[in-house]
């Protein structure tokens, strides 16, 4: 469960919020060359300050910057490391009903942490906004190391670039792990005490339709990584990055099935990955997508080990309709068959704007869903 001042907090968010219209306009003008980078930063700063106030007004104790400085929930972080290039691929990610933009991340040298990483700069601004408020925690969300690895083997061109600089996976695991570890420590030294690893790799491996795609790609590569091997590698990449961290740093992970312009990419319950993800990944809390039948049932939660918390993503960010509170309460109690109530929490299933496009709902509808999460938690756990 999320922690606030060593007390259990049974409601939370995943991270991203709908971008304000003026921010979208400013980003477009920046890319067109009509305004400077400094002009854009000032607009981002002002909108993030307003967002944090709204988060607090709507009852949140753990706040984010809404990912307002990012275009993608994951790629912007990857591009911030040394040895990773921003490229355009032949195709975007395939979602049900839509293909995304064609950006990707590709190895261009040995991977390492960049002290000027954009996520570090972003967090420092967020931390300064709340540093004088003892009632608020500032979280930094970053895509998981496994997500980076999966991007680097996403297609033949990415694999070719990877193999040019890394002849074996052992060296890659070391360099990715160190780059992430250095980033997390830099965040910690800037005041961060709550980090969340966003990760779509596990949910992809829950979808049988992706298994054949992974195995087909493995046959074309010297890496020979089929989907059972990828499960083990995801665990290794993530645990390597988060070992030997400060004891007072909370490390969470979020697993969802894709979130782009209100579309989804994968489906299937957590059974195929439950023993590794829930039993062996060294995180404090799992933020899990459970807003539709595509997510399966709660049975895989039986593998959550130790005293780890489970945050049930029961409120969808893909649709504007408000969920029934009674239905949410019923679902929470249904999950207690596998995880005790005191280790459960509730949240939206994902962010509202994992990419700058955003999902198909209004800002008012977004905040109504946040209030529903907070109010439901207070009814269940008070």
TrEMBL record:
<dbReference type="InterPro" id="IPR038071">
    <property type="entry name" value="UROD/MetE-like_sf"/>
</dbReference>
<dbReference type="GO" id="GO:0008270">
    <property type="term" value="F:zinc ion binding"/>
</dbReference>
<dbReference type="GO" id="GO:0032259">
    <property type="term" value="P:methylation"/>
</dbReference>
<dbReference type="Pfam" id="PF01717">
    <property type="entry name" value="Meth_synt_2"/>
</dbReference>
<dbReference type="GO" id="GO:0009086">
    <property type="term" value="P:methionine biosynthetic process"/>
</dbReference>
<keyword id="KW-0489">Methyltransferase</keyword>
<keyword id="KW-0808">Transferase</keyword>
<dbReference type="InterPro" id="IPR002629">
    <property type="entry name" value="Met_Synth_C/arc"/>
</dbReference>
<protein>
    <submittedName>
        <fullName>5-methyltetrahydropteroyltriglutamate--homocysteine S-methyltransferase</fullName>
        <ecNumber>2.1.1.14</ecNumber>
    </submittedName>
</protein>
<feature type="domain" description="Cobalamin-independent methionine synthase MetE C-terminal/archaeal">
    <location>
        <begin position="280"/>
        <end position="357"/>
    </location>
</feature>
<dbReference type="GO" id="GO:0003871">
    <property type="term" value="F:5-methyltetrahydropteroyltriglutamate-homocysteine S-methyltransferase activity"/>
</dbReference>
